[in-house]
Amino acid sequence: MPYRPDTSGSNFSDLLPANSPIFKVEQRILAEFRVPLLSGTTVVVHQADGLSLLTRADSLLWALATTQDTLQAGTPPKPGTIAAAIPVPTGRADVTVTYLYVAPGTGLRDEVQLADRYAAHFKNQPDVSAYVTGFVPAQVAQIDYIDSRLRLFEIASVLLIMSVVALAFRSLLAPVVVVGVAAVGYVVYFPLLSSLAGVLGFTVPGQLEPVLVALLLGVVTDYCVLFFSAFRDELRGGIERKEAARAALRVNAPIIAVAGLTVAGGTIALLAAPFHIFRGLGPALAPAVLVGLAVCLTLAPAVMTIAGWRLFTVLPVRGSQSRNGFLRAVPARKYRGLKLLTYRGSALLAVIIVGCGLALAASPLIHARLDLSFVAGLPRDDSIAEGADLLAAAGLRGISAPTEVLVEKPGVVTERPALAQPAGRARAAAGRRPRHRAGGSADEAAAGRAVVRQRQRGTLSGDL
């Protein structure tokens, strides 16, 4: 693989614009409170029949010792270390939850490794389970799953394309040529993308790699099929292969060029998107289309000229029996079914049938809802998903990706007990709606568990 997309800077905040009120509230919280309550990594310790008193004390003391080491150092924590471990009250005897905070400059994968080492402290008892969960471990795990299945995805895509092209042209050589042209584009595109990323200063999330490969394969296949179809028609008319290639190029090259430039222009327009994750798509997708367009306009016609009629035979060797059959005109009855669709009645019936089929296929969308779950894309037997499921089953859903609410009001610190109640009663006690929420989802807010902290200047912040 000549290029590896950067994954160190991609995170869920890329889904929000830079001027989002969520960011403003979070900056305000960080200015008011020394340690944030939002953490991307959570360690869950669980025992089915209840944790012993010693294990619960060990969970608390291990967190305090980890934080104390940082405080006693007297210097800011270095990248690649845990800055703080904050126990979160759960009100349960079978689960303890600890938020981990790493030093600035620590990569996502390093953060997960630090959490794994922290959780390993509790794995000395056979009946006690320790899980590392949260949206940071989930994101790293998703990248690993994508990488582990990427080759299978690419191979399946190539085989599918070869099968479709082989059936369309009844040829074994045509799909090989399409894949060969796409392979040349692949080798050119990823080093080019790496160079552009270094010059322009953008990053490409690793999750986009399958999308980029599929786009390049699709563009090359689409344009090659157009060229091959026109080239076959010219050969059937008895034109010599060089002239046939020129004629196919003369007719289709302007159409293909305009189509490719239009798609590239549409993708580069994503640079104007308010979301960082979408802005990163533009510089990655546009070169894929342009490289595919370039190899199709240059390499594909050259291969057509060399291969000639062999491009459309079952066995591309001289003397193949398919050669004479290829040169014969296609019987008119072969298109009789397509001609029926040109009549008004049959066309209307086809539209009704297709419309009903699409409506039936889309019917499950009635029950769909917009939500974000960091473990939805993970296998259920993954330890990160198991940790999140365990919290949900224990009635602590959302604690590993909480919603943080900032409430500012004169004298609000005196209402701390009421603000520790579920969200609706907390708002009523505060006498106004909170300024905004930072992070989380509706399900997490509905969990109704609150951890409230205060500053003497009348500012409270809590996690729901």
> Which secondary-structure class do the elements indicate?
alpha+beta
Please mark out the parts with pLDDT under 50 across 5 or more consecutive residues, or reply none: 1-13, 319-329, 424-464
Give me the CATH architecture of the domain at 148-329, please.
Up-down Bundle
Overall 3D shape: elongated
- Going across the biggest sheet, name each strand in turn: 2-3-1-4
Helix proportion: 40-55%
Question: Rounded to an integer, what's the Rg over CA atoms?
Answer: 30 Å
Distance between the amino and carboxyl termini: 44 Å
User: Largest beta sheet, briefly?
Assistant: 4 strands, antiparallel
DSSP strand (E) fraction? Answer: 5-15%
CATH class of the domain at 148-329: Mainly Alpha
Tell me what the structure shows.
- By secondary structure, the protein is of the alpha+beta class.
- It has a domain at 148-329: Up-down Bundle (Multidrug efflux transporter AcrB transmembrane fold).
- It is 55% helix and 9% strand.
- The protein is built from 16 helices and eight strands.
- The chain has helices at residues 21-32, 53-73, 108-119, 135-169, 173-200, 209-236, 241-268, 276-279, 281-307, 322-327, 336-340, 344-362, 383-393, 416-419, 423-430, 442-446, and strands at 41-46, 82-88, 95-102, 129-133, 404-408, 436-438, 451-455, 459-463.
- The strands form two sheets. A four-stranded antiparallel beta sheet has the order 2-3-1-4, with helices on both faces. A four-stranded antiparallel beta sheet has the order 6-5-8-7, with helices on one face.
- A hairpin with a 6-residue loop joins strand 2 and strand 3.
- The longest helix is centred in the N-terminal third of the chain and has 35 residues, at 135-169.
- The chain starts with 20 loop residues before the first helix and ends with a strand.
- The model is unreliable at 1-13, 319-329 and 424-464 (pLDDT under 50).
